[in-house]
Amino acid sequence: MIRVVLVDDQTLVRSGIRGLLDLTDDIRVVGEAADGAEAPGVVAAARPDLVLLDVRMPHCSGVELMQAHGPAWPPTILLTTFDDDEALLAGMRAGARGFLLKDISLERLADGIRAVAAGGTLFRPGLSERTRSAFAPAQPPAPLTERLTARETEILALMAAGLNNAEIAAALGPTEGTIKNHVSNILAKLGVRDRVRAVLRGLELAYI
User: Fold this and answer.
1) Could you say which of 63, 94, 122 is where a domain stops?
2) 102 and 22, same structural domain?
3) pTM (predicted TM-score)
4) Which end of the chain is more exposed for a tag (fewer CB within 10 A), N or C?
């Protein structure tokens, strides 16, 4: 069972998401918080596998909450009512593992939660040009000592779309162990330590 804490300042939104997730067999909301000030206590008590966190809340935004708690904060999917590239950028930099609109279907929400709970990420592959431009540093990023292969670039794009190693293996054909080796090579070549940073670095270098 995937244990989820839901943080959103709108009671109706929390009730709606909880009701939808109650329809699944493997996901349950084990705690709710109405704002960023209340959330840390709820998370500490519930010890969830994942947090669904509203981007924009009074007193403390979802991104500010993640920034304040750093790596100790559980894996998080940010929720918003509109496609907000600025929030996406800030959330990715704060360590968010995914980003979803609140008006998505139950199937998409549940699949996203499962992907992130399994260690994947959930960033839409078709990022806008404005988002890509925002990742462009003032100075060009340092070139890689070794460029990604075509297969590694393909796998990086699937990582950005939220697929875990098993799902990537099913999509591309190799064994899960082979995909794991490719992911390790991608992290090494990009000079990062996890999948989220790999996606960020891939954006900077225009691999995605």
Assistant:
1) 122
2) yes
3) 0.64
4) N
